[in-house]
Amino acid sequence: xxxxxxxxxxxxxxxxxxxxxxxxxxxxxxxxxxxxxxxxxxxxxxxxxxxxxxxxxxxxxxxxxxxxxxxxxxxxxxxxxxxxxxxxxxxxxxxxxxxxxxxxxxxxxxxxxxxxxxxxxxxxxxxxxxxxxxxxxxxxxxxxxxxxxxxxxxxxxxxxxxxxxxxxxxxxxxxxxxxxxxxxxxxxxxxxxxxxxxxxxxxxxxxxxxxxxxxxxxxxxxxxxxxxxxxxxxxxxxxxxxxxxxxxxxxxxxxxxxxxxxxxxxxxxxxxxxxxxxxxxxxxxxxxxxxxxxxxxxxxxxxxxxxxxxxxxxxxxxxxxxxxxxxxxxxxxxxxxxxxxxxxxxxxxxxxxxxxxxxxxxxxxxxxxxxxxxxxxxxxxxxxxxxxxxxxxxxxxxxxxxxxxxxxxxxxxx
Length: 414
Hints:
Blueprint: H1 5-11, H2 36-39, E1 52-56, H3 87-98, E2 104-109, H4 119-128, E3 132-137, H5 145-152, H6 160-169, E4 172-177, H7 183-190, H8 204-218, E5 231-238, H9 246-254, E6 259-264, H10 271-278, H11 289-310, H12 316-322, E7 339-342, E8 348-349, E9 360-362, H13 371-377, H14 379-385, H15 406-413
Parallel strand pairs: 1-2, 1-7, 2-3, 3-4, 4-5, 5-6
Antiparallel strand pairs: 7-8, 8-9
Helix pairs in contact: 6-8, 9-11, 11-15
């Protein structure tokens, strides 16, 4: 099986050979990780600030990821009866959120954002508004001259390097999907070979690797003391197929000042089905298959945290203070105490991790009095007003796909 690791290692040098320097900031810009000092900050009228927001932009996607949490009618539907928010409407709601304290957003989907010809113009608008943007992308547009030109020629951009150079100039971080070094496994994660015919996306892994190299060349992972990196690799979801490889990806990325985030499958869209299918890895066992997967997850988390402490990425004191993160070795998740998810249909959700009646705060923002009104009446706002909240773990998964004692078991092993 062909691996990208030798090629990427040859082209991307390690920055930290013997651990991390004192004061290293274990974070990535514009992810929505909120500090203790800022998390429960208030507006002059006493309203808790809405500091971060997840946002959809566009609906186009050439990939067919079998675990996709968004392109599934169980999350929301975009059709003649359910209109997508226009770019102008999205910008309008972001301006409204800025009045509530918004500093940064994450672009999650609903499609591949770089396949939207309006996206670069949107990013320029966000920079002009002083809003940082973290972008989830599978990277094929960023790794292909032809695709970069196809979606961005109207901006005078004709190569992927020109596109990445422009992105570096903007207030942007890139969160690059990266589930495996193995070519065949990575292709399975993005659905390559499923109904594409002669589509250039059949070269997905080549484009993804090219995007990573070009992003590093542009300086997205440049180490600046006291500042967070602007580049992340995202091995999400962790499934039975790749659980044993995630540690290798984590250590490879972190040595290169690339944030590396991983987490189990979300309980929304196709992700709800994909985990169950993945249990086939454990077929034939006399033990419950889901328990075997959780045991593998626990081992992975423990291994990542032990390495992180040994290399000074995280201090033992900091880990004790903050607790175990849903994202092993990374900043704890507290976004459900600092904002919510505005998706393309106008629906407002707890976050991207789950979509059901209890996690939908508004069926359509266009029918609401205001964004502020939705914010102040939702459960996330109660967390924002509770000064004892910092590490939210994962309200979308905890006690549903993650057992109640998951975090305590990991703590006990470190």
